[in-house]
Amino acid sequence: MFKDVKPKNVKEYLAAVPEDHKEAIEFLHKFIQKQAPELKPFFAYNMLGYGKFKYVNYKKEEVDWPVVAMASQKNYMSIYVCALDGKEYVAEKYKDCLGKVNVGKSCIRFKKLEYLDLEALKEVLDLAVKQPGLK
Known about the structure:
Elements: H1 10-16, H2 19-35, E1 41-44, E2 47-56, E3 62-72, E4 77-81, E5 84-85, E6 88-89, H3 90-93, E7 102-104, E8 107-110, H4 118-130
């Protein structure tokens, strides 16, 4: 996705976002920080992460995992919301409210910012702050 650039931090990631996604990614970066200021931004697994929780990965290692993450893909943008409401992923629970998006478990994919319902995203972020985790 990033031609000849391997970002190592938030600033480098934002600078390397392709022009067709730059405005949306920068807007959402600010939006997430405003809506959920307790979720501090960091560079995580080649994407922007916000907040951390302990997670045991497939290698049985305990790692710091982002509560929310955002990535610019070749054909779309993604927001990952690692939060549960009971046994249901929050993103899946709100999929019908989030706009013209594709949702799978914790991932919200969209092609244009205007396709994403920001009021519903606010609710999703509020729940993510309160109930981070993965199943």
